[in-house]
Request: fold
Amino acid sequence: MKKLMTLLALPLLFACQPKEEPGQTATSSTQPPASTAPTRDPHSYSHPDEARVEHLVLDIDVDFAKKEIRGTATLNIKHAGAKSLVLDTRDLTIKKVTLQPGGANADFKLAKADPILGQALEIPINADTTAVTVEYATSPKAAALQWLDPAQTAGKKHPFLLSQSQAILARTWVPIQDTPMVRITYEATVRVPKDLLALMGAENPQTKNDSGVYHFTMPQKIPSYLLVISVGDIAFRPLSDNCGVYAEVPVVDKAANEFVDTPKMIATASELYGPYRWGRYDMLVLPPSFPYGGMENPRLTFLTPTMIAGDRSLVSLIGHVLAHSWSGNLVTNATWNDFWLNEGVTTYIERRISEKLYGKDFAEMQWTLGYSDLKDEFARLPAGDTALYINWAGRDPDEGATQVPYEKGSMFLRLIENTVGREAFDKFLRGYFDHFAFQSITTDQFREYLRAQFPGIEEKVNAKAWLYGPGLPSNAPLPHAEGFVKVEEQAKAYGGGTAASSLKTDDWKSYHWVHFIESLPSLTPERMAELDARFHFSDSGNAEVLSAWLNKSIDARYKGAYPAIERFLTSMGRRKFLRPIYTKLAAHPEDLEFAKKIYAKARPGYHSVSQATIDEILKWKG
Reply:
């Protein structure tokens, strides 16, 4: 699983596309949306303008044998005489629906299924209906849920369950109004095997109990994509009074050591952007199949184990998911068309945290590597998908999780900062988080607030080109990291024939190595082998360095790295690393069969999010 906005005492209007029903096909839009009254999310069947869910009560059993969650979801609703409540579901078995108060059976209807959006669950309600209770069960193939066998875990003794609800997968394990426009509080009772611990993005236990029954309360309002559950042989280590780490027992101590700076990050972010408003900030390190680097579930950030490098060199990712506690969680994109409002602001804040804790040059290295990733993404994507605001109606919004909303979005904010000055921009952001706290907003609202705070700023920065146009506008604030100058000199020297043993790499950290590898010119397999023998890149325990090296090895046709490619692709499921490697392999006819053989082994261990991406790359039919 981040963004900007604020001020104006009068209610601001939602920005929307012309009305489109869920499932209607539309192409990417590069035109500004018209400012209209609040309407429906194109990725949800729900009608929150007629009847809105305000609180969720879950009472569920987690059944590892059947790979099923079953139980009831009671949804407290607010409406003014609506005739029906419409919920989003996908691959759920709906057994019974009752109306509250009174418990009368409701004659519900499930609409025809859409492959992306699932099925609308329409429940007739009465004028006095205050809640509905849905008895249901998930499918073993629920896209949000991953059921891991003991062999797929670090401990090898117990199974593990993890969920990933973003963008529109909450509907595969809870019947819900699955749109970021709707924010809810929730409580839950969860029954699991007695030797396992259950966790949610809520007030969590820190130790197992004897009953296997756990109770959760989430008092702050969240959008549905932040609903989360995990169950496993999990232990806890505190890092401060309001921060700690959960992980599988064999991993937890290493994780606690790696993330020891997190309380400092919380303090730094709070100093810059206002108080942390979610109570505790705990992290859960998941098995390697988790498809993302991190997911910002309030009170329980999910993290990939690929962050544990042993030297704290990759912990800046925590700065990103922590920053979501302000941009994304506190102030949320109203629809997935506005996704840049979550990710661009968060990436900007992440780098401000890094600058304050680790220095300006460290942050500038992050900006530089991000810009490099963005250029690669521009080369891969159609022009229409390189705008910040994109109409994703008729498409899976997960396709929008590219580097564009992150890197182009953060560069747009940096341009505004450079234009108005850092002090004024910091005041703007802090006020934005205060004003829009616990609300979901749109790109149009961002523009209105920006104009109110800085009259004329849109014209000065050419905001329309940034928001609705392709690529990078000519006024982009391109980064320059002094710390990378010598790195680039060494890459050029090696390309010119300098021996690997003569390269000057003293005191290099992971960012230096990644940039060195990415800065190398085209090399022969023999020269790649020389580098590998000197620096052991193919055996690196740092996932960022290893990923950069493996991608370069494919470009260079360096077959000496191919065993490492297979080990890497079968040992973790983080989509950021999987997508470019599989893409490069698929581009070479002689490598395509190699990629498919790896994928046939690895695919069962990937989350559905990663499976969907790689299936498309390899045109997988297996």
